[in-house]
UniProtKB/TrEMBL annotation:
Name the record gives this protein: Oxidoreductase, short chain dehydrogenase/reductase family
Family of the protein in this entry: Belongs to the short-chain dehydrogenases/reductases (SDR) family.
Organism: Euzebya pacifica
Pfam families per UniProt: adh_short
The keyword Ligase is annotated on this UniProt entry: no
Amino acid sequence: MLVDSHVLVTGATSGIGRSCAIAFAEAGARLTITGRRADRLAELADELPGEVTTLTFDVRDRDATRAALAEVPSPDVLVNNAGLAAGFEPIQDGDEADWDAMLDTNVKGLLTVSRTLLPGMIARGNGHVINIGSTAGHEAYPNGAVYCATKHAVGAITKSMRMDLLGTGVRVSTVDPGLVETEFSVVRFHGDADRAARVYEGLDPLTPDDIAETVVWVADRPRHVQVAEVIITPTDQASATMVHRR
């Protein structure tokens, strides 16, 4: 079903997005990969089999996003993966620049990409939007108020989007991971690699490939099957704040 389909993955320069691009390419899809770092996109494109288009832009820049996406056909599958966590302080000590980065990327960026590409899917009567959420969209935890808020927003947007698109032939899904070892924590802690490593210390976290495998499975269901939501966590994680460390 995915062979020769067109898949667009945002935030493909690292982590889950990069693994999704590789997994879809290996499944025979044609890829459009986007991100802020042109060198990483080019490096990834060279590694992937098949047809690959790269688009360099920041989803926080609405005009640049719309202009870049106007250059490609509407995809069969859109993976809204671009996102980040920035900072880990109680709300009374939070950095407003971090808040803006998360809101502009995780919520407004997802909305801009979706709003730009959905009309083409609707006109074609076929398409699939897969939003990468988080277990943080299902529960809150200390020092994560704004990040959790953005991922709760992704969950609400996904549900409403599914209702809005009912009858159009466009499917809408969300894949919500728990602890995945990527650059996520390094970014959250503003480059403090030692602090980031301690997040995963003593447990077996998910890998980006685990999530990519799930995303491809969701995309590859028959057209009459819509996987609305997948929550995936490591065996060593029971909740946002409960993990088993050896």
